[in-house]
Design brief:
It is globular and about 110 Å long. It is about 15% helix and about 35% strand. The protein is mainly β. It has a 9-stranded antiparallel sheet. Strand 31, helix 9 and strand 32 form a beta-alpha-beta unit. The longest helix is centred in the first third of the chain and has 22 residues. It has 6 domains: about 30 residues; about 180 residues, Galactose-binding domain-like (Jelly Rolls); about 100 residues, Immunoglobulins (Immunoglobulin-like, Sandwich), CATH 2.60.40; about 230 residues, TIM Barrel (Alpha-Beta Barrel); about 100 residues, Immunoglobulins (Immunoglobulin-like, Sandwich), CATH 2.60.40.10; about 325 residues, Beta-galactosidase, Chain A, domain 5 (Distorted Sandwich). The protein contains 15 helices and 60 strands.
Length: about 1100
């Protein structure tokens, strides 16, 4: 009886489960990942002949019809509101909107983009209930309340070419987010999830002569969205190409080409795994395989084999072939020797039935000795993570934009890209094959939104195994023939568990050669991986005896003004062979072009929250080395220098002896021209070209640079600049493009700087009355105010160089004897005064946990002066000295003591020497900067300097910025960060000038140590208060900062902060410089900058 009850209970449960499953939508059922969808296979286009195939241009094929273009479109907020029978050809949709395909419908104005980073936009924060996406308990501000699950219904008509009669016809959707149903002529064809790999359906039986009607219904959210939680805009729609292709009744459905290389790498055994399908034909077909060097014509083809194809059953036919190939050229990222392999399939009649083309490269991959080897050479990955992003199209990529990305990457000395975090557009892999990039090819698996529910992680939930495996298999199947793919990656931030073990096994059943990567579960991978490691942890990993190599899949978070210490990471990679390199996060800001609110004629790059999307992580997706529109930035140029392969070291610089090391793995340095120049205070005085050096990969050589000792100028500095440029045009850059450079100080004996003469300039005097001390010379006047303890005005001739309005000092007249009220901010006094503040960088803020938060809490942006002493003394007829002791206190109580001596000379030069003692007792251990801030009036726009440049630099991001003489404008000193922040700093500066167009202005000359400076039309507070560049109101004045020290940048927006050597600790610091009047009639700035005044 008990047994009967038990079985009745089991049967009841099964029936209830059946009912439950039957009631589930396909798009809320993790077990339904496709209906009637073809299995994954290599990506190809069938062509009509070999010449067409070699063009690699789909439109050249008679068996390809693009369905891109204008479709009819209906959009609703909720699935229940979607039209129910729109797929019926008799239903009139002429009144529907038009939409272009491919596109993301949010970018086209339907709904809004969401950006959340890790939180699912369709759940209540981390309160998740997979596979459901239609729950209704959300905070009132969530976008999900207004847009529960938008659905886009698409319709268009198409014709099938007459010459396709008797062939099988398939429809290909390159990418649809996130789930879709497909109908042809009113008949349901199938269903698909998995947004980043193709969905293909055999539509032959649904077609009719003449016009055919295609209908697609797309859901914004589905159970598949739980595996698509990537750190990116959440966008929807048909965003990749849609096309029809036709194949003969016997057809080469799939192929996988691999090569075993001989020990001398001159011959190969080509393995061909071929999969044929039979759709109802009889007779014997012939398959001819041809090998053609990329760019060669068909008459240069080499026949690989000729294979009779018969006995192909309805289940298909698998064939494994081995072919010996001699005289091969190897593929690597440095020398991407590429071939076309053509499969020419001939029908029993002898006519060509189809030709399929694929890229192929001869290369092998091996893991041994804790390293990864390509063609026998240990590879060090110098890479970046790249998200597919188009500022004008969202996820929609075009070839021109992809070309821009790969050209820039190659120019920046990168050899690796990680397709974070999903399979990219197929063209991207072809470009990587052709241009030479190693690819870490990632599957479309990220369930980061489950992070707070590790016990429920989808990677270890058996009901989700099918989806995990399918997404990985489809990624591998589509792209397995690309030589550029060096590792498969099973996903990103999706936990660990049995589903990744199953995915790993499935990948290895297809491809045994390539290693498998997955940062979240290194046990089920061939390499160990990690993100954002500290130097200490990297050192431990480098020393580890684990046989697996270690790959730093994300590091140097490049959000905003950063990253710092890329050099230190790369030194670790170079020191420990087990560390095989890494990929910076990330390549490009992911902004979308949007009209400026209230000013539709202007645009900006939008980030999270700008569309009213909630929840959001704001600008956390603006992490690129390059901007959304792919502009070259200072941080890119820094990385380019650190990543360069030609290492140049000093042997005896005075004798012109250097060591040149070729750290490329495959190419000779005869691909580059070496040139040099000797500079005096930043200006070239000698130069020459040595040309091409014969230094093989891995070798080094001593090289003599034939400069001669010049006649030394008093007080001058000399530098030797070395440059390697391309000797010939490359696909990614023209001849003459610089790929490596280095700079060395040439330490000639010092010729003492000449003294600045005071002869003929007359005497100076001062007037001390009430709060004001005025010092007058023959051509100048300088004013100090005792209330603030600093220079307030400076006039040279008839030109006001520093000008402070009285109200900036005295404010509103009041009874209190305290005349400097806390309503007056520091930037309103024009003269040099203490500045500890920088507009917090994204790294400083570090998601609300960083140093910048404590700086803001202590109100370092509001340093208010309290003068303890002010003394003025006539030292000589040509020298007056002002000594001040000022305590700067913020409204929050943070105190900084300054002791300053101003030595004013009769020629208008002011030597400024200040000892700054920050408060070290209140817990603040690190300051953003220690220096001065001042402002010059309108029209002082021209900037020149002798220091590190020409681009922005900081203490931990200075590599590649060479000491030189540079010119700019104040306007052009701006660096375009998505969120305004600290910017424009120049390091190791000897002198700089800011002048008007008449050549009159101020020259600032470093005294005993170099200074940092910036010159902008914004104060640090201006920058901090703005969330967007369009919110900045450009001041007429020029705001100048002069720093003795500046805290490093680090990468704390996601990762470690600045390293200890770049800390700016709360210790006493001396800042000293000369403030000099300048007139172009005085002579060359560099000559004046060398002069010293007693």
């Amino acid at each position: 009886m008990n047994q009967l009850k038990y079985f009745i209970g089991i049967i009841s449960c099964m029936l209830l489960c059946k009912v439950s499953i039957a009631q589930q939508h396909d798009w809320e059922n993790e077990q339904v990942i496709g209906i009637n969808k073809e299995e994954g296979h290599a990506f190809y286009i069938p062509y009509g002949n070999a010449e067409q195939a070699l063009t690699n241009y789909p439109e050249a094929s008679p068996y390809y019809v693009s369905l891109n273009g204008t479709w009819k479109f209906n959009w609703v907020k909720h699935p229940d509101l979607a039209p129910s029978n729109f797929y019926n050809p008799d239903v009139d949709v002429s009144y529907w909107d038009n939409i272009k395909v491919p596109s993301n419908w949010e970018v086209e104005g339907y709904g809004i983009p969401n950006y959340t980073n890790s939180t699912y936009a369709f759940t209540n924060g981390f309160d998740v209930h997979p596979p459901l996406v239609m729950e209704d308990h959300y905070p009132k501000e969530y976008t999900k309340n207004d847009l529960p699950n938008p659905v886009g219904s698409y319709r268009r008509e198409f014709d099938v070419p007459e010459n396709w009669d008797g062939r099988e016809v398939f429809i290909h959707f390159g990418g649809v987010q996130s789930a879709m149903y497909v109908w042809v002529n009113g008949q349901k064809v199938g269903y698909s999830e998995g947004s980043m790999t193709p969905a293909e359906f055999n539509v032959t039986k649904y077609l009719k002569p003449g016009k055919n009607t295609l209908a697609v219904k797309v859901f914004r959210w589905s159970d598949g969205s739980y595996l698509e939680g990537q750190d990116y805009w959440l966008l929807s729609g048909i965003y990749r190409d849609v096309f029809l292709f036709s194949v003969p009744k016997t057809h080469l459905w799939d192929y996988f080409l691999q090569a075993d290389l001989s020990d001398d790498y001159k011959q190969a055994t080509l393995h061909s795994k071929l999969e044929f399908r039979n759709f109802g034909s009889k007779g014997t077909y012939q398959l001819e395989a041809l090998l053609v060097e990329k760019g060669a014509s068909i008459d240069k083809a080499k026949k690989l084999y000729n294979l009779p194809v018969n006995k192909v059953s309805k289940k298909g036919l698998s064939v494994d072939m081995k072919t010996n190939v001699d005289g091969i050229k190897l593929w690597s990222a440095e020398e991407p020797n590429l071939y076309d392999v053509l499969f020419v399939l001939k029908a029993p009649s002898g006519n060509i039935a189809e030709v399929i083309r694929t890229n192929f490269g001869f290369r092998d991959i091996e893991i041994k000795d804790q390293q990864l080897f390509v063609n026998g050479k240990s590879i060090y990955f110098k890479g970046a993570n790249r998200c597919e992003t188009n500022p004008y199209g969202g996820r929609v990529m075009n070839k021109e934009l992809m070309l821009k990305d790969i050209q820039l990457m190659k120019q920046m000395n990168m050899n690796t890209v990680r397709t974070s975090h999903y399979p990219n557009h197929p063209i991207w892999y072809e470009l990587c094959d052709e241009y030479g990039l190693y690819v870490v090819a990632e599957a479309n698996v990220e369930s980061h939104g489950m992070a707070r529910n590790p016990e429920d992680r989808l990677g270890n939930t058996i009901s989700w195994q099918k989806a995990h495996v399918d997404r990985n298999v489809r990624s591998v199947e589509r792209d397995k023939n690309h030589p550029s793919i060096i590792m498969w990656s099973m996903g990103n931030e999706a936990g660990s568990g049995q589903n990744f073990a199953a995915a790993y096994k499935a990948i290895k059943e297809i491809d045994q050669e390539r290693p498998v990567h997955y940062e979240g579960d290194s046990e089920n991978a061939d390499v160990e991986s990690g993100m954002y490691k500290t130097m200490g942890s990297l050192k431990r990993l480098g020393k580890s005896k684990d046989p697996k190599p270690f790959f730093l899949c994300e590091y140097a978070h490049a959000m905003g003004n950063g990253p710092g210490s890329v050099r230190e990471y790369c030194k670790m990679f170079e020191k420990y062979p087990r560390l095989i390199g890494g990929c910076i996060w990330d390549w490009v800001d992911q902004g979308i072009v949007r009209s400026v609110p209230g000013n539709p004629s202007e645009t900006y790059f939008a980030y999270g929250g700008d569309y009213g999307d909630r929840p959001t992580r704001w600008n956390f997706l603006m992490n690129g080395l390059t901007t959304s529109d792919r502009q070259v930035t200072s941080k890119m140029l820094h990385v380019k220098h650190v990543y360069q392969y030609i290492k140049i070291k000093p042997i005896d610089i005075l004798q012109g002896k250097i060591e040149v090391e070729n750290t490329y793995q495959f190419i000779n340095l005869n691909k580059f021209n070496l040139s040099w120049e000797l500079t005096c205070d930043g200006r070239a005085i000698q130069s020459g070209s040595i040309g091409q050096l014969d230094i093989k990969a891995g070798d080094k050589a001593e090289v003599a640079i034939p400069f001669t000792k010049p006649e030394l100028s008093a007080g001058a500095e000399y530098f030797l600049n070395i440059s390697f440029t391309l000797a010939n045009d490359e696909k990614w850059a023209h001849k003459g493009y610089e790929m490596a450079d280095e700079q060395f100080s040439v330490a000639y004996e010092k010729v003492p700087a000449e003294e600045m003469s005071l002869e003929g300039v007359g005497a100076i005097s001062f007037n001390d009355k009430d709060d004001v001390v005025t010092i007058n010379g023959k051509l100048f006047s300088v004013t100090f105010n005792k209330s603030v303890g600093v220079i307030t005005d400076y006039t040279y001739g008839a030109t006001e160089l520093i000008k402070t309005k009285p109200e900036a000092i005295y404010g509103v007249k009041q009874e209190s004897p305290v005349v400097y009220t806390d309503t007056i901010t520091q930037e309103e006094v024009a003269g040099p005064q203490l500045n500890l503040y920088r507009a917090p960088t994204d790294n400083d803020l570090s998601n609300g946990r960083g140093l910048g938060v404590s700086w803001l809490k202590l109100q370092l942006d509001r340093q208010l002066p309290y003068v303890h002493s002010f003394n003025v003394e006539q030292i000589s007829k040509q020298n007056v000295e002002v000594k001040t002791s000022v305590n700067y206190i913020t409204p929050a109580g943070y105190s900084t003591k300054t002791e300053t001596i101003y030595s004013v000379f009769a020629n208008g030069v002011i030597k400024v020497k200040a000892v700054v003692t920050p408060d070290a007792e209140n817990g603040l251990q690190i300051l953003p900067r220690i220096g001065h801030i001042l402002q010059m009036p309108k029209d002082f726009e021209m900037v020149e300097y002798f220091g590190a440049g020409p681009f922005e630099s900081y203490s931990d991001r200075i590599e590649g910025a060479f000491i030189g003489h540079y010119k700019s404008t104040v306007t052009d000193m701006v660096e375009h960060y998505a969120r305004p922040q600290e910017m424009g700093n120049r390091s190791e500066v000897r002198w700089f000038t800011v002048t008007n167009r008449d050549g009159v202005g101020l020259q600032f000359v470093a005294d005993s140590t170099y200074i940092n400076f910036s010159a902008l039309h914004y104060t640090p507070v201006d920058l901090h208060r703005a969330n967007y560049a369009y919110e900045l109101s450009q001041r007429n004045e020029t705001i100048i900062t002069i720093d003795a020290a500046h805290h490093g940048l680090g990468s704390a927006s996601c990762g470690p902060g600045a390293l200890r050597p770049y800390y700016l600790e709360t210790k006493p610091v001396e800042i000293s410089y000369e403030l000099r009047p300048f007139d172009v009639r005085m002579g060359e700035k560099e000559n004046l900058g060398r002069l010293k005044i007693q």
